Amino acid sequence: MSKTQSAIIVGGGIGGAAAALSLAKVGIKVLLLEQANEIGEIGAGIQLGPNAFSALDSLGIGEIARERAVFTDYIAMMDAMDANEVVRVDTGQVFRDYFGGPYAVIHRADIHDTVWQAALKNSLVSYRTATKVVEVNITQNDVEVIDEKGNSYKADVLIGCDGGKSIIRDSTLNDKPRVTGHVVYRAVIEREDMPEDLRINAPILWGGPHCHLVHYPLRGGAQYNLVVTFHSRQQEEWGVTDGSKEEVMSYFDTIHPRPRQMLDKTTSWRRWATADREPVESWGTGRVTLLGDAAHPVAQYMAQGACMALEDAVTLGEAVKACNGNAIEAFKLYQAVRIPRTARIVWSTREMGRLYHAKGVEREVRNLLWKGKTQQDYYKALEWLYGWKEENCLQPR
Question: Which reaction is this enzyme known to catalyze (predicted)?
């Protein structure tokens, strides 16, 4: 195949919307298929590092995203047992100058809308909702997907952006998820309900024994995002179910009163039993590849899930350009640079979860790890992560 003319993207989340925009910008006609009745995002807040803003700038929507985001003053980890600060990374102007972009927090729906509205403005992007793909057929000349109603769609290439439980991944790799045993509760708290001493313009993580909490402002400080995570006492299955305040409180009964007071403020008790997957050597065959959580589902401990999906989308478009429009060759290049980087994210995230949830002597050691570190030390250690940009995206990092 020479120049790729058309692509099917399965999944309309942040990664799928960004992939549609990226491929359309390099002249590929995109059909996006979404199984939900509407294209949009649910949930609460997410964090965006400088690498995410580099990707958004590349997609032409960086300024819109900046207008909707809250720039943070710093990132901090607190000890949930004694309420002492363990580490703080300043994210003000010096940080922004060092990495060429800010650290910010934003409502998930706002960043999705920013990407998706830009994609819709491109005449090469079309979409169908209420379309659940159930079958994938790869031929020498094209890729066909069939939905549950029997409708068939064909294109030159296929990109699976359909999340951690990806149908496209199952059709090509058929590997099994790794259930972490960690449960997450997420909620949004209105400003007037947020404890005054925790109305902080920063993502604050409170690390406790086998548990942690994270909070940060949204929408100009009108709301606050709260994420509560703990190691479950029971065998978990990957998915979302109803939870309870009583369950949450039972895992946080020994932590300091300052972070624990937030648990009385939320009325949302949906629980996510989380999972990731072991990194693999390939995300597809020939005309098929994966992107975002479909390619590299990851726990939330480094706040890089959406950031990696945005990086993926930009890298895919740049690979197509580098390969003169030949998407099959571009998929090889894309995977060659993205698989090692995202594998590092998956494995690093697991280790961060261990640090956050340390107890006993391990907690004491954790609290000593950053003693004496300067802000420059932190920035240098984060260069591999936040130093990603369009101009270096096809180089191993």
Answer: 3-hydroxybenzoate + NADH + O2 + H(+) = 2,5-dihydroxybenzoate + NAD(+) + H2O
